[in-house]
Backbone:
């Protein structure tokens, strides 16, 4: 057993307390925001959407519902994917879509992410579903949505971003 002792003056104790307070303040100020403003059809809303805390597929289904989509409770596909350390042309183009929404998959290069794909059973505002299957995909890293898209073979929906179809902007 080791015993360590030291003599602390009031100044050293005060310095340590102030230093801890500064570190705590810096952590609060510098940590990334997990709530994001919502833009619906180009109009800023006071409503905030949280992209973190997605621990289960039920959380993701509820998130989709909050955006106005009805989805099957069970994902059509859930896959662990390691993003490559260098993006090819396809991933670069896909990441441009993500960047337009305030996401950036480049931050997660060479990291393990999870891609959950849900079948959409109803679109927002009672928009009719196309004959082709509509899929809503979420990309997560450590229980946080870091990207996603809505996909259908129909030209008007093909690989569109959240901002246009979900009415959200991650900013």
Residues:
């Amino acid at each position: 057993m080791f015993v360590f002792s030291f003599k602390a003056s009031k100044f050293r104790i005060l310095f340590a307390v102030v230093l801890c307070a500064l570190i705590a303040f810096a952590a609060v100020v510098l940590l990334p925001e997990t709530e994001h403003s919502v833009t619906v059809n180009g109009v800023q809303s006071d409503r905030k959407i949280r992209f973190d805390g997605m621990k289960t597929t039920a959380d993701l289904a509820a998130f989709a519902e909050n955006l106005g989509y009805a989805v099957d409770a069970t994902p059509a596909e859930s896959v662990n994917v390691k993003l490559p350390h260098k993006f090819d042309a396809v991933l670069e183009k896909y990441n441009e879509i993500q960047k337009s929404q305030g996401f950036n998959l480049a931050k997660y290069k060479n990291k393990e992410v999870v891609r959950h794909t849900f079948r959409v059973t109803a679109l927002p505002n009672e928009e009719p579903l196309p004959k082709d299957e509509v899929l809503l995909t979420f990309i997560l890293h450590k229980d946080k949505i870091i990207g996603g898209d809505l996909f259908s073979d129909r030209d008007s929906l093909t690989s569109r971003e959240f901002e246009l179809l979900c009415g959200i902007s991650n900013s």
About this structure: The CA atoms of residues 51 and 151 lie 20 Å apart. The two ends are 53 Å apart (CA to CA). Strands lie at 35-40, 43-50, 70-71, 77-82, 112-122, 134-141, 144-152, 160-161.
